[in-house]
Design a protein that fits this description.
Glutaredoxin; globular; seven-stranded mixed sheet; 7 helices; 2 domains
């Protein structure tokens, strides 16, 4: 009887171990696939899609401008695009660091794109938080969930995108946790 119990236990342990190894292998395959997908996504982001380039924004002087025009205006300059909103606590906390980056890299152009719900909130936020740079507003209160947000896979703000002097995307998906990466990249791009 003890032998049968022992054999049954060994079989159960073996089956459990094999099942765990299979799960680990499946997890590794899934992780490798995620890395491959992310790499493909980043390779595709060297240039903005046509959808992103045609996105319309409102400038401070109340004129319509699209992303392609913003990039053309800044061709020859390294650009940090900061997507923010005046209601976003993480954005507000990050402004101190972005101001420091602006001081450390005065030749870098900062483009602020607001995801605020109203133009009034956007304009008040610029003054309230002392944001220096070019300013644009995602129209119609679309914010993060509208066509622009969807076209750049916007899931979180603040979101930073770094553009090189040739208007190619050098860093596509950075948050406030990536400030060190942004600094290193800006040094390389000068």
């Amino acid at each position: 009887m003890k032998k049968i119990s022992l054999i049954t236990g060994l079989i159960a342990f073996t089956l459990f171990s094999c099942n765990q190894k299979a799960k680990q292998k499946d997890n590794l395959i899934e992780e490798e696939q995620q890395v491959e997908n992310k790499t493909e996504l980043l390779q595709d982001k060297i240039h903005f899609s046509e959808e992103v380039l045609m996105q319309e924004f409102i400038s401070l002087d109340n004129k319509s401008i699209n992303m392609q025009q913003i990039l053309d205006i800044n061709r020859g300059n390294v650009v940090v695009i900061d997507i923010w909103a005046s209601w976003c606590k993480d954005c507000i906390k990050a402004f101190e660091t972005t101001r420091q980056i602006q001081q450390d890299f005065p030749e870098v152009t900062f483009v602020y794109i607001s995801a605020d719900k109203t133009e009034q909130s956007w304009k008040e936020g610029i003054g309230k938080f002392n944001l220096n740079g070019q300013h644009y507003y995602i129209p119609n209160g679309e914010g993060m969930k509208g066509s622009f947000g969807k076209s750049i896979d916007l899931k979180w703000i603040p979101r930073y995108i770094v553009i090189d002097k040739d208007t190619k995307v050098a860093l596509y998906d950075a948050t406030e946790k990536n400030f060190d990466d942004i600094r290193v990249l800006l040094q390389k791009l000068q």
